[in-house]
Fold this sequence. Notes:
CATH architecture of the largest domain: 3-Layer(aba) Sandwich
Helix content: 25-40%
Low-confidence stretches: 264-269
Number of strands: 15
Structural class: alpha/beta
CATH topology of the largest domain: Rossmann fold
Distance between the termini: 50 Å
Number of domains: 3
Number of helices: 17
Amino acid sequence: MDATVLAVTSKGTVRGFRRGGTAVFLGIPFAQAPVGALRFDAPTPVAPWDGERDATAYGPTAQRGDAGITLIPEPSMPGDATLNVNVFAPADRDPDATLPVLVWIHGGGYTSGSPASRWYDGDAFARDGVVVVVISYRIGFDGFGLIDGAPSNRGLRDQIAALDWVRDEIGAFGGDPARVTVAGQSAGGGSVLALMASPAASGLFHGAMAISPAIGAVPADTARRFAARVAELAGVSADRDGFAGVTEERLVELQKAAGKPPRGRAIASLTALLDDGLPLGPVIDGDVLPRHPLDVLAEETGVPLVIGSTDDEFTMLTARYRGLLRFVPVSLALAVLGLGRSRRRAYLARTRRQGTAAILGGYATDRVIRATVSRVARARGVALTWVYRFAWPSPVLGGACHCLDVPFWFDHLDADGVSAIAGDAPPRSLAAQLHGAAVAFARDGDPGWPAWDATARRARVFDGAASVPFVETDAYADVAPLV
């Protein structure tokens, strides 16, 4: 750890540290600890403090315990004050600087994930004149369970409260509250789309990046049924008083049990997951999220958006069953998953994938992520939207799999765990391209390739080539039968 650095916020002074050319501040609270009477409440403003508050270590995380093996190393940190932010700013900036800001939302299917990951540290952005804020939020049932007597969408409210903090405090770190880009990957990308659709978040950010967005839009009736099932398993009433007596750790176990398919219903449950999405996530509550994000995005034109995905988000999940699945006719498998005959034929005619395992993994990729990208781009109409594809295949896992692009966006290829997904020599030129696009978008509002339009439907393809950037016409045409 290098020299101490200080920042004076409206709540008090925070003490961080200098790492090379970056001023690092970790675990700054933006709301009170959501425990006790505040556990199922909306985020409550943090009280001011005297003296210097230590901000040299990651703060507590909403993720508890060992998350198991994940593609992105996201440690759990113990403690109650889980609503905190990490800030990375140029250490040698002009004292009067007003720099662009990138706010990052981690993924994890709305049930896991942590901001305490070196993959999300913003040193490269700070090097390039962008202040990064990595936020935490309540996850799982504590964050998104629909509980009678408690505010809905507590995790989404946490994200909005963090953006409020950015608006009010980022000037202390050299950031410009009028130039905020919100970005996230997977569930974080879905959160970005939900924030774009939320009236409560209006005006808090001026650009958006949805990276491999797993859209969250749980119908209220579905959320109520899920809450009732969790309450039944817990042996409590499905309201705030009932759930208050169930520990976070126990609720995590129960939400997993409630999400398991009944015996003999695995295929039907998988089909429902592909059709309806995750059982926990932002709820269409008529309040914070009044309508489905896709419906709102068809009308919202004010916030420029970068959106895209990796080409093979989930093909690795079926690759392990390649030997078994080679005996299964792919058309039959897709039919079992609910894809009708005409759409099935059209989809198989367009896909570039070969073999049942690859096609089924690709189908999950396309239904959950890539079709969402296409729907959002089409829905946005004339609103400024830039679409991309990340096509560089992992030399370790095969294909351009889920999470593979994250260390390239952050230009952080030397972070622990990157080699496990990207190999020992990931192309630095590709990191320069993705990271450069993110910096340009945060700084100038343009990532550097032609915007999407209904006629050409162009997308930037990031495939590892170091030569002239490739812009594809009629991008995402292969998922058209699913849109």
